[in-house]
Amino acid sequence: MASYDVIIIGSGPGGYVCAIRCAQLGLKVACVEGRDTLGGTCLNVGCIPSKALLHASHMLHEAEHNFAAMGLVGKSPSVDWKKMMSYKEDTIGQNTKGIEFLFKKNKIDWLKGWGAIPEAGKVKVGDEVHEAKHIIIASGSEPASLPGVEVDEKTVVTSTGALELGKIPKKMVVIGAGVIGLELGSVYARLGAEVTVVEFLDAITPGMDAEVQKTFQRTLKKQGLKFIMGAAVQKTESLKTKAKVHYKLRKDDSEHVLDADVVLVATGRKPFTEGLGLDALGVKMSARGQIEVNAHWETNVPGIYAIGDVIDGPMLAHKAEDEGMAAAEQVAGKHGHVNYGVIPGVIYTHPEVANVGMTEENLKEAGHAYKVGKFSFMGNGRAKANFAGDGFVKIIADKDTDRILGAHIIGPAAGDLIHEICVAMEFGASAEDLAMTCHAHPTYSEAVREAALACGDGPIHM
Ligand code: FAD
Ligand code: NAI
User: Fold this and answer.
1) Residues in the active site (predicted)?
2) Alpha carbon of 101 to those of 33, 126, 202, 226, 328: distances in Å?
């Protein structure tokens, strides 16, 4: 039996970041991981592999659609799927090995196996029981199931199966127009699949700024994705190498069937707590299966904490990381903090979509007076040169104080541009503060400045 200051269960972005910060703060740390490699969902079957495939397929799209217009003519690339898969695997390997290196560097013990908590202060891994003053659960999430839909990870797949298909399907049906459905749907559409997205609601990416939703859907349609909106999936039928998707249109209850080579089920994820023994410990859970924590990430059982996808809030790697650092500070006797009002969300399609803070819809509902500054990438010289003029930056500021309340971007490098606004919001900046900051020319970030100018006397280039 070994004794630790902290044992963390799960080595995803929440767990591994927490472990590193705990070690940096002088604590003796172990991290339990049941997978063969560190890094959790994000590095193994989530953020990293999906971004590798998005990158590779985007390069192909650029070659097919934009190269000739720039005078780049001649042999166009074709897809070697096996090679693309091994590029993805290499990318995963480099990242998971990187965490292993960081664990060694920070003297963090990796307890290999599935952990359970027999009682507060103890973690069981295999036959061994280890002691810990603090236990932090970072066990993450898994795909949510859908009634009538049986996943076999071959023809009816979750994101995990979709990241390792044996070949590129001719026809793919995606259930759910959320982040996973649109990112992975984009990958296969660019690689030549006919992709149809079936969505229960009338708009894609629920919760997002309505104007962005419309522009985003229009752009994806131009890229060849088809959408069936307001459609409730009833069941899927798996026929070895093909599948059928049965759905009902909500407006008239009419029944329809779609054929597919592969069906991707992307209707959300749920917390993963299996085998931890939380029931017996009396750890309080929400109706949605999330572990309940207080403002310091501690559960109702003293000494047991939880962070990341397994608790409430957006299921995002950077949210889990921030909670990992903050919980580490907390158990080290310091004061950890996460500003939940300034957590950006990014969809890594092309163009990218990014948001932070309030939407117009949120503010209307709250009766909060606001103003909007908007600027199209069509007015941005760099974007025009790069065939990236589709999309806009929209900044929302308080009507009276001019304080920035939120921002919504669809366009080139949106996922990077959003952070300028995050920093501004952390400092309580006004739109004018952004507008008065010199921005280098020619950069995409000039569009952010122009949107900030549009909150005041108006943009220059529109
Ligand atoms: P996880 O990353 O899920 O890690 C939990 C780990 O705990 C797992 O490795 C699991 O094996 C281990 N574990 C669980 N129980 C036990 C146990 N009892 N004993 C031992 N080990 C255990 N987010 C983004 O911010 N950006 C993205 O681009 C992005 N892309 C995504 C793409 C896909 C396809 C998917 C599925 C998700 C994506 N996400 C993205 C979401 C992101 O992956 C999660 O929000 C993030 O991984 C959550 O981190 P976590 O540490 O809470 O849990
Ligand atoms: P999601 O919650 O983003 O989207 C699910 C979609 O499915 C919604 O549009 C919903 O209305 C729809 N839906 C639900 N039931 C349905 C039904 N029966 N029929 C048709 N449509 C239905 O969930 P998703 O895409 O599975 O992603 C899970 C999590 O992973 C998200 O919370 C996201 O934060 C995270 N993620 C983040 C990424 C990023 O940051 N770029 C990338 C991929 C995942």
Assistant:
1) 441 (proton acceptor)
2) 15, 24, 46, 44, 20
Q: Which two tokens stand for residue 85?
A: 């898969």
Element (H, E) at 416: helix 414-426
Ligand nearest to the CA of 205: 2
435 has binding-site annotation = no
- Give the Å distance between the CA of 416 and the centre of ligand 1: 22
Q: Is the ipTM of this complex over 0.90?
A: yes
Ligand 2, atom 3, residue with closest C-alpha: 178
For ligand 2, atom 41, the nearest C-alpha belongs to 347
Q: Per-residue pLDDT tens for 118-141?
A: 999 999 999 999 999 999 999 999
Tens of pLDDT, residue by residue over 417-457, are 999 999 999 999 999 999 999 999 999 999 999 999 999 99
Among the CATH numbers 3.30.390.30, 3.40.50.620, 3.40.50.300, 3.30.70.100, which is that of 345-454? 3.30.390.30
271 alpha carbon, closest ligand: 1
Which residues have C-beta within 8 Å of that of residue 321, sequence separation ≥ 6? 13, 14, 17
From the CB of residue 15, how many other CB atoms can be counted at a distance below 10 Å? Answer: 29
CATH superfamily of this structure's domain 3-143+270-331: FAD/NAD(P)-binding domain (3.50.50.60)
Whole-model pTM? 0.98
| 268 known member of a binding site | yes
For the segment(s) 156-267, the CATH number from 3.40.50.700, 3.10.129.10, 3.50.50.60, 3.30.70.20 is 3.50.50.60
Integer angstrom CA distances of residue 79 from 38, 53, 312, 349? 30, 12, 40, 19
Q: Which residues form the catalytic set?
A: 441
Q: Strand, helix or coil at 362? A: helix
If you write DSSP's letter for every residue of 28-66 in order, what string do you get?
-EEEEE-SSSSSHHHHHHSHHHHHHHHHHHHHHHHHHHT
Q: What is the mean pLDDT of residues 4-10?
A: 98
How does pLDDT run across 26-82, given as a tens digit for each residue? 999 999 999 999 999 999 999 999 999 999 999 999 999 999 999 999 888 999 999
